Structure formats: C-alpha cells, structure tokens
Amino acid sequence: MALLCRLPWLQTCRWGTAQTGRLTGCCMTTGTESYVDWTWVTSGTWMDQAHSVSPKPGMVLLSTPLSKTLLERMWHRTWPHLVADGGATVLQATAPELLPELVLGDLDSARPEVLQSYRDRGVEVRDLSHDQDTTDLEKCLNTAQKDFACKRIFVAGTFAGVQGCFDHTLGALNALCKAEVQGINAALLSDDSCCILLPKGRHCLTAPRQSCCGLVPLGGPVRVTTSGLCWDMKACGLRFGEH
After folding, report:
1. In what order do the strands lie in the sheet with 222-227?
2. Model's pTM, two decimal places?
3. Nearest-CA neighbor of 179 among 207, 206, 199?
4. DSSP 8-state assignment for residue 51
5. Residue 40 has what pLDDT?
6. In angstroms, what is the C-alpha Rg of the chain?
C-alpha cells in the first residue's frame, strides 16, 4: 500500500511561450497552497536569459544527440557537469571547449582517445565498470548526489526512442523513479521535449502554450486533478489498459 501511495505520473511538453499550470495528486486536494516547484524545468524562458535558480541544478550529459545551442545554454546555467560514458564523445564533437567536472560509467562506449584527451586537460575519468547492476545514467545521478549534494538535475540528450532502442527510453524513466526515491528531482531534457516525474503530491509547472502535454500513469493507477491546462481533469483516474 505504501508503494501504491507513491505511484508517479509523467509530464511531457515542448517548448513555447509559458503558461503556469498546477497538477494535484491524489489525497492532496485540500489544505495549504504548497506545491513542488517544477518551473525551473518547464519554463522555456530560462533558456534565453540568466537563470535565477540558486543553487544551480546539476547536469548529466547522455551519449545521445543534442544541439550545440541547447548544450551551451544549459552548460552555463548548471553545475556540476557529469558526462555519462559515451557522452564524452558527444561533448567533444559538439563543444570541445567545454570541460566537465567528471566523466564516468562503465566506459564501454566512449572512445579511449576521447577519454585520454579529457584526462590530459585535467578532467577526472572514473571507471565504474565493476558495477554492472546500474546504468551509466543511474551512476551519474548517484554520483551527483553523493559527491556534489545535487537535489535538482537536468539530464540532457535525446531520450525518446533513441535510435529505435525503446528500452533505453524505459531505462531513463526507471532512473528517474530511482532518483525520486533518493530525494533527487531529475528532468530529462532534449531539443524538442522534456520529461519529469511527478510523485504523489501537488506540483506547479509552467506549461508552454500551443504545445503538447501528456500525463502518463507510470507504474500503476493514479488519480489526477489539474488547473491551468486547456482540458483540466478533476479527480480523474489514469491507468494503463483502461479508457
């Protein structure tokens, strides 16, 4: 029962002009106006101006495509910067002038010469190949929390249907679930969409106008109430396999 009470739901959106919306989880429809603030993720405006969030969110770079424009904007508004294995190759090809605090993983994807080039420039490269029970993304999220005390983390890179590997997408969602249990608010961010995990409770988002927004009952049935969306829901039950 305790597990069912914490079943999450997923918010996905595409960038545009912002409009504030609120999403209310089950058993949280009364009481004070206390929300988990997700506007640091869902507001596209911070991409175009100095971001005021303090402390800065951390950043994990995946080994998937990401535009140089988004990479650079995120880089200068986040700290620390952790690169997941093959993400080192992506970073060197996209923005070789940027140096992360750490490159880590089981190091089976990044080219050896790329890793050596970062070592030569003073970047720590951490081989965690002894741990085959977690993904490179999970390793990065765990390290960001333990070594840098990160509570908010952007995970940058294409995450939806990566090169036809849907299992990688599911693995990223599972990493968000595990991070939430550890007290980390993590968000997947790519050039055209973002994805965040909303556990039981009340949440405030800046939902972009004229954009797609999807709520997915990840893990099991949930009951959702929203305000500020085009089509709001009131105590609406969401569950896979049902209408």
Report:
1. 36-37, 202-208, 18-25, 222-227, 236-238
2. 0.83
3. 199
4. -
5. 80
6. 18
